[in-house]
User: What shape does this take?
Amino acid sequence: MAATDKIFQHGTLGLLVPGLFDGTITAGELLTHGDTGIGTLDGLNGEVIIINGHAYQAREDGQVREIAADETLPFASVHFEKPDISAPIEATNQADFETQVVRDYRLRNVFAAIRIDGTFKTIKTRVAPRQQPPYKTLVQATATQPEFSGEHVQGTIVGYYAPQLFQGATVGGFHLHFLSQDHQLGGHLLGFEIEQAELKIQHFADFQVHLPIDNEAYLQEEFDNETIDHAINKAER
Ligand SMILES: [Zn+2]
Assistant: This one.
């Protein structure tokens, strides 16, 4: 039986901040912990969107492709989908959406998976560019990133809301990715306007963090909370 009551996260957002971009879990293993989620590939190579048990990579050249089971990721969050809220949602932008959803579904101090399927008046994404070792920091690596946009796009937003307290372990607040139905547009979501869509929310009491304890660079790193907080606010919002 697939556990639908927890988020499984490999790595931390914080480990990306100093540039620990080596993949430390295979996509195949990751998908045994969830059928839906988000992440990035080895070398900070693009944005990962996991929907219905398939993992896709949005690349910096704008292409989207399915990820093979032996490819690796430094950071990803997944869960098995079983939403406890399903509601139609119309004509709202990202800022209003986030305020409403936190208020209406009591998310403030709760982990939640967010999924929105529908038609979007506008969608704006960005994609992290692939890095080569020796790796730069996250802020340096993401200083210039290709951005993509579409109008009247059908597709799916997937991602998470996490309590602010967990900033560093993950992104405190919303962290959402997008994949269009035709796989022509994807990435880390920068903004959207909903035309008509279905919102699904899954609340979680449990958040499982799985650390890359066989990775030498991870073992040696001395993390600094303040640097991590600033970098996440700069690179992930
Ligand atoms: Zn992202």
About this structure: The mean pLDDT is 97. Residues 115 and 158 are 5 Å apart (CA to CA). The chain has one domain: 6-235. The domain at 6-235 is CATH 3.30.1330.80 (60s Ribosomal Protein L30; Chain: A;).
